[in-house]
From TrEMBL:
PANTHER family: MULTIDRUG RESISTANCE PROTEIN (PTHR11206)
Lineage: Eukaryota, Sar, Stramenopiles, Ochrophyta, Bacillariophyta
Gene Ontology cellular component annotations, sorted alphabetically: membrane
Cross-referenced InterPro entries: MATE_fam
Membrane-crossing segments per the record: 95-118, 175-193, 199-220
Keyword Transmembrane helix belongs to the record: yes
Similarity comment: family membership: Belongs to the multi antimicrobial extrusion (MATE) (TC 2.A.66.1) family.
Domain of life where this protein originates: Eukaryota
One term of GO molecular function: antiporter activity
Keywords attached to this entry: Membrane, Transmembrane, Transmembrane helix
Protein name as it appears in the record: Polysaccharide biosynthesis protein C-terminal domain-containing protein
């Protein structure tokens, strides 16, 4: 067949459905990225801000590099879960979801052990400032623990994307970082124990642990048969 001309109404008919998934999916990632930018800004308000900002930058670089592993697994999970649900196979989608959570948890344990083992050496890849290196080495202990909820939450976020529940994923990240992690981190850093940048990361870790647990329970309680039916209904619309 040949192109018969632009049919604008048909061309834009799917945009609302696309945005209904795309915008919450964007917020899933942005809520997480923005939260760490807020932490960086908070470091500037701490005593000895230069050292705090420097050590936080070191940890952010290391943590972001490690997170690429979890992100890759999360994206793969989105594809596998989405394909399985679109094919009407809720059992296969559930299997892919739990395998991803298990793989991310295993990867997190390995990465945590690696960060702890080389906590004195890794900061020296970024700077020769001994004050920054000393604080970054301490931060890596917290960062190692942070890997576990970060990886599990990454897996859960991928599962939610693949099952068409991006809005729920965005809400989880908002609660994790803005209602729990950042306020708790600021309280520990500036108020309760004056732990500085270490306190900021402790708060983020605690907040993310709570949400990772909630997210895992959410996956456990998912009705995969219903999700498969909903996915097929969305496919049928096109």
């Amino acid at each position: 067949t040949f192109w018969t001309g632009l049919r604008l109404r048909e061309a834009v008919a799917g945009i609302p459905n696309f945005l209904a998934l795309g915008v919450p999916g964007m917020l899933q990632l942005c809520f997480e990225w923005w939260a760490f930018e807020v932490i960086s800004l908070m470091c500037g308000l701490l005593p000895e801000a230069v050292v705090a900002i420097g050590s936080n930058a070191v940890i952010m670089n290391i943590s972001s590099t490690v997170f690429m592993l979890y992100l890759g697994l999360s994206i793969s999970c989105s594809v596998r879960v989405g394909n399985a649900l679109g094919a009407g196979d809720g059992t296969r989608a559930s299997l892919a979801a739990w395998l991803t959570i298990g793989m991310c948890a295993a990867a997190a344990l390995f990465c945590a052990a690696f960060l702890l083992a080389f906590r004195e050496d890794l900061p020296r890849l970024f700077t020769h400032d001994e004050e920054i290196n000393a604080l970054a080495s301490t931060l890596l202990c917290v960062c190692a623990v942070f890997q576990i909820p970060d990886a599990i939450n990454g897996a859960v976020q991928g599962i939610l994307r693949g099952s068409g529940r991006q809005t729920l994923g965005a809400k989880l990240n908002f609660v994790a970082y803005y209602l729990l992690g950042i306020p708790l981190g600021c309280a520990i850093a500036f108020g309760w124990w004056h732990l500085g940048v270490v306190g900021l990361w402790v708060g983020m870790t605690v907040g993310l642990f709570l949400v990772a647990i909630c997210g895992t329970l959410l996956v456990y309680g998912s009705d995969w048969t219903l999700l498969a039916k909903q996915a097929q209904e969305r496919v049928a619309e096109y």
